[in-house]
Give the backbone structure.
Amino acid sequence: MQHQVAIVNGPNLNMLGQREVSIYGCKTLNDMNSEIASAAKPLGVALEFFQSNSEGELVTYIQQCRCRLQGIVLNAGAYTHYSIALRDAVSAAQLPVVEVHISNIFKRESFRHISVIAPVCIGQICGLGAYGYVLALRALLQHNVNEAQMLNEQLE
Amino acid sequence: MKKQQLLVVSGPIANLTEKPGYTLDVLCWRTDINACLQQAAIGMNIEVTSQHYNDTATLTDQLQQAGRVDGILINTGDLALESQSLCRTLRFIKVPCIEVFTSHFSADKTHRHQSIVASECVGVIGGFGNYSYLLALAALANLLLP
């Protein structure tokens, strides 16, 4: 079965390439998504891209991923630091989710150091730009391989 | 073409990272992280040197001498939470550095989610077991691309 994974971006990530380029770089969201799609091809993964500035739309989309996809790569933007609704949506989705940030959040203001969604994600990658999403995708696939292997070992 | 030199530095307890019973990726399963990194680095034109120390002073000494390498992967273990001297050393040597955690440090409910070393690194990768190291190697190779 081919893996299906969602690449989900939160508020202001539609402004990439225009917004604070010294922090987020010159690539637009489309540039970044094309890069991720190219990297996903040899991995045999089908990707679904979603971006919204609305917390409610993000929650609804993540709810719809449940039982339909095999994982989510999530950059929740500023919602990372305070959205309990998003955290609950991730938790309820019962899918492996990898948290990604383009910038190194630990180099920035202290309010960005805390992620309320981290405890419901399998891991976190930050500071590595668009390549962070590609690494997150690899981490997600590896996680699923490990889970399947563990399940097989338990069944044997 | 000259090989890029990568230093992998591990702090206290970071040499004891494998969780018994937890299946890591095929390459790393019950094998040595360093051997995995060296194997993976072959196709990347990178030479990997690994060092492990349990004390801050020796770790600092080694990092001070690391100015000759092209990149650093660092898992400082518990020193990530407290060592200002490591932070200053990383700031001083100006070598691109990625902090690696095998566990998901940001999800830790205790004080452990506050790594002070992270602020001196290019980026941070955590939560993927030994596979975090392989991802960090790929990230550094990508950073060092001409």
The first strand of chain A starts at residue 3 and ends at 9. Chain A has one domain: 3-155. DSSP finds five helices and five strands in chain A. Strands of chain A lie at 3-9, 45-51, 71-75, 97-101, 123-126.
